[in-house]
Amino acid sequence: MTTRPPAARTAQAAPLTTAFGPLSISFDHRVLAPREWTTSQSHWARELLDGAPPGAVLELCCGAAHIGLLAVHGTDRRLVCVDVDPVACDYAAANAAAAGRAELVEVRRQELGSFSAAEPFPVIIADPPWVRSELVGCFPADPLLAIDGGADGLDPARACVAVIDRCLHADGSALLQLGSYAQADLLRAELPDSLVVVETRAEPGRGLVVKLVRPDTTGEPGARA
Q1: Total domain count for the chain?
Q2: Is the CB of residue 104 less than 8 Å from the CB of residue 78?
Q3: Which of 11, 76, 154, 186 has the most CB atoms lying inside 10 A of its own CB?
């Protein structure tokens, strides 16, 4: 990522472009640059889509929408992208158009707390900020809104879990990105009874993704994998 002095970070800039899998993703310094390791979250979501019920995919805290767009690439699934940042939403829409999916992608600029949908989603992808507030200064090249997760790094993740609980299909799956196993354990302890963690996939030194589903009829708890 190109590093810019703090004074320049609020100014509008010419878009940068990077490859994300087969996609070409546009962004600038006001939006978190795509991380190559997060293609694994997209590929996991794509695997889940093969056996998922019909319906659109939901991406929360979508940023430039690269993770969601790669997940639905090569399918006819609709994608609903949600982010509070207007710049991120503009790039999400532009990247959807560049991928030839303008008619299949809906971008909503919206707080997670007010998000609702008429239909449940069979797959939900959540990419919240997860850096603890005391550590955001370690990442001067990254926009604060895109990385600040609050005191324990989990405030946006908790908001994502609330949306997942409201909107996940009974037979669906959600993939939630976090920063560490410690965060995953903290969040697991707070989950409502209607959600369980059944698998975790980590990228050492980068982050991890947990898979959330509805409890099965056996009542077997989720477990770290």
Answers
A1: 1
A2: yes
A3: 154
